[in-house]
Every structure is written in C-alpha cells, then in structure tokens.
Amino acid sequence: MEEKLRSGKPDYVLDLTGESCPEPQIEIVKKLNLMKVGEVLEVVSDEEPIDVTIPMICKTHGYPCLTLKEGSLYKTRILKNK
To answer: What is the pLDDT of residue 19?
Structure first.
C-alpha cells in the first residue's frame, strides 16, 4: 500500500496552499467522500499543522496516508481503501 502512495500518480490533487484551519480538513473530507475505493488523493499545503491533522483524519476514517515535505510545502497522499 505504501508503494502506491509513494510512487504512483495521484488520481486527484487538492491544493490547499494558503488555507488555514479548519477549511483544509473540511475540503479533504468532502473530496474523500466523492472518491471511489482505490483512488489516491494528494493534498498540498503550506500550513505546518497539516502534517499532524491529515494523518489524524486518515486514522479516524481508516485510510492509509503518507506525508512528504518538499521545500515549504507538505504533500500528503491518502488512499481511499474502503
């Protein structure tokens, strides 16, 4: 599963750069609710707490995720697995 998150191309990209809480969390949950099982969402953000809040959202919903930091951006990939 981690390989799909790390090396695969995401099905959707949600750019939340410049957005502050709680808007990113709301947008992430909305998008995940519209996605099909097996699809990957990449969330891009420059808000530092996002590297903690997104994994918490994923854990609550049972979705695996992987966060990478690229410069000042955080990129989190989420696999909708159910």
So the answer is: 85
